[in-house]
Write a structure and sequence with these properties.
By secondary structure, the protein is α+β, with helices and mostly antiparallel strands. 43% of the residues lie in helices and 23% in strands. The longest helix is centred in the C-terminal third of the chain and has 30 residues.
């Protein structure tokens, strides 16, 4: 069970409080200004740094109010979200639902009139786990069609069961790509990058299609994942042995969404290269 304490303007795990304080991480400002670690990801208004201390490894995700994102929100008649708080609550909700994910360590935010100016979340590394897409590329990429079939089916079944349980809890991810599922040596799947998770009594159909379309799109670069493999996954996701009419309609909707994501991804890559967020 998570045990957190309020330390000034930071919510921090009691287990890690002294360890973090020893390197000067006590206040929200300390985390936002911390100069240590290696940059893992940088996007407009968001960065992720990885650092080690006391034999532990942590990921520090920092958010800042970016003018472009602020105006994009206003143009949609929305206020900018409380990014770190939303992710923090999603991590705790996913864990409470029995779905493996990262260990939350600390959270903090600076607000103005109830809206986020800057914020952070700190999580512990998943030791011995790796993104599932990297596992597929390394272990299945060079295998012939019949090789590793038993292992492949076993892992695809586990992945389908996790996705089914996640959606069954009234949650959708919005970034449901293979690289956001981590796999460890005991074949346990973990679901990561929860900052956009939405929670309801029941997930609307269009958000199921979006999640499953993203998963489908991220599988396209792996020829080792055959149409039969994908059907196997879908049948276990739906909890059925054969496709009913509703299943077929869902498959068609997912295929259409996959194609739209592919078109959008090309445009997004161009924009991110232009902004200097990724290499050509």
């Amino acid at each position: 069970m998570d045990d957190f304490v309020v330390a000034g303007d930071v919510l921090v795990s009691r287990r890690f409080q002294d360890l973090l304080a020893a390197i000067g991480l006590r206040s929200c400002r300390d985390f936002l200004d911390y100069p240590g670690g290696a940059c893992v990801c940088h996007k407009r208004g968001r960065s992720v740094f990885r650092f080690e201390t006391g034999g532990k490894t942590f990921y520090l995700k920092r958010n800042s109010l970016h003018p472009v994102e602020f105006w994009k929100s206003l143009m949609k008649f929305r206020l900018p979200p409380r990014s770190a708080w939303r992710e923090w609550e999603s991590i705790r909700a996913v864990r409470a639902a029995g779905i493996p994910t990262v260990t939350p360590v600390a959270f903090g935010e600076q607000l103005l009139l109830g809206r986020e100016l800057a914020s952070f979340t700190l999580t512990e590394e998943l030791y011995g786990a790796e993104p599932f897409d990297e596992y597929i590329a390394r272990e299945w990429g060079g295998a012939s069609k019949g090789e590793r079939r038993r292992e492949k089916r076993r892992l695809l079944r586990k992945l389908a069961q996790l996705a089914r349980h996640f959606h069954g809890q009234g949650m959708n991810h919005q970034d449901f790509y293979l690289n956001h599922f981590f796999l460890d040596g005991e074949e346990t799947f973990y679901l990561l990058d929860l900052q956009r998770v939405q929670r309801r009594q029941q997930v609307p159909q269009r958000y199921l299609v979006k999640d499953l379309g993203q998963l489908s799109y991220s599988s396209l670069r792996f020829p080792c994942l055959s149409r039969t493999d994908k059907l196997f996954f879908f049948l276990h996701y739906r909890g059925t042995k054969k496709l009913a009419m509703a299943d077929r309609r869902l498959v068609r909707a997912i295929a259409a969404k996959t194609a739209r994501i592919a078109d959008h991804d090309v445009k997004l890559r161009v924009r991110r290269i232009r902004r200097g967020e990724m290499q050509p």
